[in-house]
Amino acid sequence: MDELNDELLKKITNNKIQPPHRNFKVEKPQQVFVPLTFESSTEEVKAWLEAKSFSKETVEHLGILTGAQLFSLNREELKKVCGDEGNRVYSKITVEKTQLEKNRGESELQEIMKRRQERIDSAN
Question: What is the pLDDT of residues 97-110, one digit of tens each?
Answer without folding.
Answer: 988 888 777 777 77
